[in-house]
Amino acid sequence: MTGSYPRTEVLPGPERRRRWSVAEKLAMVDETREPGATVSLVARRRGVSPNQLFTWRRLAEQGALTATQAEEEVVPASAFRAQQDMIRELQRLMGKKTLETEILKEALEVATDFKKTAVAAAVAATRQFPMTAVCETLGVARSNVARRVVQGPSKRQGRPAQPEEPLVSEIMAVIAEMPSYDYPRVWAVLRRRSEARGAPSANRKRVYRIMKKHGLLLQKHAGGHAERQHDGRVAVEQSNLRWCSDGFEFACDNAERVRVAFALDCCDREAMSHVATTAGIKSDDIRDLMVTAVDQRFSRLNRLPTTIEWLTDNGSCYTAADTRRFAREIGLLSLHTPIESPQSNGMAEAFERTFKRDYVAFNPKPDAATVIQSLPIWFEHYNALHPHRALGYRSPREFIALKANPTGEVALSEN
């Protein structure tokens, strides 16, 4: 039996896949283009798969010799154009950001004003960058910048600066009298004196600015400690709805200690009465305190017309049975704060701090007798002249007068 058998090529070694070079691939593709040749015939003669040869032929027709070598598909022309468009857009954005960076650098160099419009006008006036780009970078209106570049910055016609020396002298006088006053209370005293003279009062911000310039501001307290959370509200909207009371003590120069108890209205903050002694505060002292407070507000009465809350801590002089019974008899409702919660009687605690800071600390205290004689003067100054932040920096007496006559004039003597 005669005939031709297909020749079989044996690949030695571990590799079982034939590798074709680019030249061999192109040679096979060229053979398929010869007259009378077919892809199947060339594939059979070369020992490759017809599908593989068809793929090489298609890639060669697309001109992808490199793709033919790597056996990858050629990127379509539409995708190539899309990539080119993306590159151009990125180049445009990069150029825009570079321009913005240069504009901002120039703005830092030429800026003499903190306002963006003035900075933009200064940069645009250099003619280094387009005005539109400058305005878009700094976020300002182009029309305003263009007007400033052409006409120059507008000059505001403000009132001339007022001399500081008279106001500084008045501030120094207030501080000499009350060294613990910060600028709001100094301003309140100056306002009261200006109103008494019928003259315009100094602006509060101006008082702060001048005191800061001359180093007259108090140092801020930066301390603090964890305290019990308190969510209630001690203050009330009307007078004679709630009174609060507390006690404090301080030492005299001769080491004698004076103990003071007071009664305070939780609306107008007036210290209605006080008692002072060198011994401990007793139940009898608190009952005298209650009677004096009632007489001060309602003249002499056996019983209050309406019940008033009496807010105190848990001191023995306040929780004594005699004190509570007497309070009920005259129409006071005794209320006590929780244990270890001074914030629940915060108004009385604040008054204690204010009194010690503004009166006890800066007045002579040679002995207990002198201090006890001076206490009525200190309490009267607090009620008549001491500015209170919660009262709009009015004193308690001023606040009471304004509540009684909202449209009337309030005139209080500082003597």
From TrEMBL:
Signal peptide: none annotated. It comes from the Bacteria. GO terms for molecular function: sequence-specific DNA binding; transposase activity. One of its GO terms (biological process) is DNA integration. InterPro entries: HTH-like_dom (IPR025948), Integrase_cat-core (IPR001584), RNaseH-like_sf (IPR012337), RNaseH_sf (IPR036397), Transpos_IS3 (IPR048020), Transposase_8 (IPR002514), Trp_repressor/repl_initiator (IPR010921). Residues 235-404 form the Integrase catalytic domain. Gene3D superfamilies: Ribonuclease H-like superfamily/Ribonuclease H. This is IS3 family transposase. It comes from Acidisoma cellulosilyticum.
